[in-house]
Structure formats: C-alpha cells, structure tokens
Amino acid sequence: MRNTIVLFKRELAGYFATPVAYVFICIFLLLCGILTFYMGGFFEGGQATLGPAFFEFHPILYIVLIPAISMRLWAEERKQGTIELLMTLPVTLPQLVLSKFLAAWVFAGIALGLTFPLWLTVNYLGDPDNGVILASYVASWLMAGGYLAMGACISAVTKNQVIAFVLAVIVCLLFLIPGLPQVQEVLAGVLPGETLVDAVKSFSFMTHFGSIARGVIDLRDLVFFASVIGVFLFLNAIVIELKKAD
Q1: For residues 226 and 105, what is the distance between their CA atoms, to the nearest angstrom?
Q2: 166: closest CA among 70, 102, 242, 246?
Q3: How many Å apart are CA 233 and CA 236, to the nearest integer?
Q4: Inter-residue contact 225 to 142 (CB < 8 Å)
C-alpha cells in the first residue's frame, strides 16, 4: 500500500507539473458553464436544481474529456520508453496500474469539485435538495472512474495517444448508448422480450448514473461501477504484462 501511495502522489503531481492540467480544468469548467446556462436553460427552468441543467450533460461530456485524461496514462510511457524504467522499480504491476488510475481519478474529481460555485448558486437562489445534488456528484465521479478505467486499459494497447483517445471514445460510447431512450425503443422492436432490453440497458452508464443522480444510492449501481473499474484495471494489468516484449 505504501508503494501505491508514493506512486499515486508522483503521478498526481505530474499532472500539475505542466500546463496541460490547467488547460483541461479550464476547458471542463467552461464547457460545464456553457452547457448549464445556455444549452441547459438554467435560469429559464425557474427551479433551484442542478439536475436537468448540469448533471444530465455529464455522461456525454465525459465521453470526450475523460479519454483526454486517460490517453496518456500508458501510451506516453510506452512511446518515451519509460515504461521499462517503471517495471524495474520495486513495485508490483497491480500497484503501478492502481496508482496511475487513482491519480487520474482524483484529478478528474478535482476538476469536478471546482464546479462547486454552481452548487452555491442554486442554494443562493432557492432551497434545493442538497442530498440529491451530493448523490449526483458521487454518481458523476463514479462514472468518470468507469470511463477512466476503460481509457487506461486502451491506452496500454497502443503507443499513439490519438489512437488511444479515439478508441476510448468509441468504447465509452458503447457503454453509454444502451441507456438512451431512442436506442431502447429500437431494441424493444428488435429483441424478443422486455427482459433482454432491460439486460442490455443495465450495461449502460446512463442507467446507473441516472439512478444515483435521482438521490437513490442503490447497492446494485455501486457494484456496477466498482465491477467496471475492477474488470478494466485487471485487463489493463494483463495488457501491460503482454506488452512487455514490445
């Protein structure tokens, strides 16, 4: 655990050693503001809530922004040849994988946490359900973790960050679209039985994110995100092990 913490601090500090982290945070906050106040119709809604205007855009927003974080996790190490140096450190492969993921996840959490002025704004304008807002933040961070785990696994496959980004966007999109109403209508007309439609829907981030964002933290939703993160981190370690000879 001590090695993981040391590596985690090193990786997290690395984000802020270059302007890239600050640029990412500024872009994230700017897009959140635009989506909330212009596309989300925050003031037009006339309600002191962040749900429809702010959080409903996160599943789609993360499809682009989270792969931008994950694409460099392993692809950059392999391109620069520093992955061999990492493998010689007195740490295990699972510790390396976990530390890189946690640093990226915390960084995403910092960016998300910097949207707190919106939370203060709705409390100033009205009397929102802060429990629901807190649950929505938790759901958003868990979803970011799921996307990051997928992106990290894909980043380990290639040395090219652009390819890692594109592939991560595609995979994340595949885990999102089954929860869209339009896709569910199509599936209902193709698949025999509502049970199969619900089964496909259960693999969507949108489904579990929406459930928690409504203020209901169900164990099944937590298990889903934990399982996605665990499975893709496990696959990440396998890919790194197989790529040692490259």
Answers
A1: 13
A2: 70
A3: 5
A4: yes
Q: CA distances (Å), 127 to each of 8, 94, 135, 188, in order?
A: 39, 45, 16, 39
Which class for 230: exposed (0-12), middle (13-18), buried (19 or more C-beta within 10 A)?
Answer: exposed
Report the alpha-carbon distance of residue 246 to residue 244 in Å, rounded.
6
Closest Cα to residue 196, out of 205, 186, 182?
186
* String of DSSP letters for 194-214: HHHHHHHHTT-HHHHHHHHHT
Q: Tens digit of pLDDT for each residue in 77-132?
A: 777 777 777 777 777 888 889 999 999 999 999 999 999 888 888 888 777 788 88
Q: How far, in Å, are 119, 136, 213, 222 from residue 51 at the CA level?
A: 11, 8, 8, 20
Q: Domain limits of the chain?
A: 2-245
Structure-block tokens of residue 114: 């910097």
Residue 236 near residue 153 (C-beta atoms within 8 A): yes
Q: What is the residue-wise DSSP string for 225-245? A: HHHHHHHHHHHHHHHHHHGGG
What's the predicted TM-score (pTM) here?
A: 0.89
